[in-house]
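note to self — DONT lose this again. spent like an hour looking for the file last time. sequence + predicted structure for the chain T wanted, 219 res
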Amino acid sequence: MKTKSMLVILILAIMIPAAVYSQYAPSSETWMMGGFEYGLFWESAESNIGVKSNSHLQSLGMNLTNYGFWGGSSLGFFSNLSVLFPSKLSTEINGVTTNVDYSNVDYKMQLGACMGVGYRLDITRGLTFKCGIGPSFFYLTQMGSISTITTYNLGIGGEVGLKYDITKTFFVDLGTKYGFDFANYTKISTAFIDASDWAKKYFLFRLNPTISIGLNIFR
């Protein structure tokens, strides 16, 4: 547990300054985009008492993504922020499947962040392939009348997509956010107990299609 806690601190220590730098660094070209995101999450884990579970979560929300490039280079900086609201959850535990539509949950939200290296490749005039990859952090909270559940995920994520310039200033973007999470810390609070722990044998894969509009900013 101590090793994983140190890993959390290390990744956040890298991500936060990098995010600030990406906003103020004197890049020669910046892409700023925002739009809709549809979240698809597949998760597997094992509890400390040996109970195995597999789940599939669907979410709807929005995302903000930035790319920065210096001196016409194909390599640059990438950052992304996602805000999602879970809509459907299917969980299988010991062969029994339970479906949840979140109708009895008062509040639920996912918050994700990812930043790292960005890459671009011009295909034709106005059409560009782009991708980014780096460390990622995902947070989920759901509050109901009986319990409050909060989870923190760490992994590797990024995005891949196509950018099309409508004009010199405006563009549209079709892409997919992706992620591979390898660490999960969960807290559960009820009127009777408060429990928290790291998941064992944890793995999560996410594939989130996006559609966005954006601005080209030249400096």
